[in-house]
Each structure stands twice: as structure tokens, then as C-alpha cells.
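Module 6 notes. Inverse folding takes a fixed backbone as the condition and produces residue identities as the prediction. Think of it as a translation problem where the source language is geometry and the target language is the twenty amino acids. Below is one complete input and output pair. Work through it position by position during the lab.
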């Protein structure tokens, strides 16, 4: 009986580990795609952190949670941060190029234009601030 429980526990740990590894791999792939497509957003690097925010007009979490979080971060950092909002409906090729599969998706770029973080789904203001401050 106890060996069966240990086996099931071990399998659960392996499955969770594989899921986390797959999530990490997907995020690494998105960061590489973003790094390769930085110049699709601007001709030269802005020499400050950039928050790239993919959204759609009918995305409720985008309007009710993500946009207020981004506005809060933008208000706190002011001119030290550039925010680029991209409507994935109006620019589907750009969303595809960046590997965006769902909205909201945010990318945090450093001052050199390197994509450092990707957030699939809602990212709270505290998380965004923490990511920006580590750059």
C-alpha cells in the first residue's frame, strides 16, 4: 500500500516537473523570437526599459486588470519606461511574429532592446515592477 502511494507521488512530481520545464521552454522560445524581432517595433532602441503589451479590444482581463497594472507601473516610473500597446486584432502578423498565442501577453525589454521577461496572461503591477527593476 505505502509503496503504491510513493510511486504515485513520484509520478506526480515527475509530471509537475515536466510541465514546469515545458512552460520554461516555451517562454525561452518566446524571448528568443522577441529578441529577433525588436526592430519590428522601433527603428532604434529607446535606451530605457520597454514594456510591450499585446491586447485585444474584447479582452476583459486586459481592460480590467492588465491595463490598470501597466498604467500604475507607467505612473510610478514615468519617463524611465516606454510602454508599447499592440492590438493583436489590428496587427495579427506582428503578434504571430512575436509568438503571442493569447492576450494579455507582456514582454519586458531592457535598455538594449533585449527581451528579458515574458508574461503570458495577467501580470500584476508588482510583478512588472520587480521585473523592470532587475534590468
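Target side of the pair, the amino acids:
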Amino acid at each position: 500500500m505505502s509503496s503504491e502511494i510513493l510511486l504515485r507521488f513520484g509520478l506526480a512530481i515527475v509530471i509537475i516537473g515536466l510541465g514546469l520545464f515545458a512552460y520554461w521552454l516555451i517562454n525561452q522560445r518566446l524571448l528568443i523570437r522577441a529578441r529577433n524581432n525588436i526592430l519590428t517595433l522601433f527603428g532604434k532602441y529607446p535606451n530605457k526599459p520597454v514594456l510591450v503589451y499585446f491586447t485585444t479590444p474584447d479582452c476583459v482581463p486586459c481592460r480590467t486588470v492588465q491595463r490598470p497594472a501597466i498604467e500604475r507601473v507607467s505612473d510610478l516610473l514615468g519617463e524611465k519606461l516606454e510602454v508599447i500597446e499592440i492590438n493583436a486584432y489590428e496587427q495579427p502578423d506582428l503578434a504571430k511574429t512575436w509568438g503571442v498565442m493569447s492576450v494579455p501577453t507582456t514582454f519586458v525589454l531592457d535598455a538594449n532592446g533585449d527581451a528579458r521577461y515574458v508574461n503570458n496572461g495577467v501580470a500584476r503591477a508588482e510583478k512588472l515592477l520587480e521585473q523592470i527593476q532587475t534590468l
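Reference fact for the lab report: The two ends are 51 Å apart (CA to CA).
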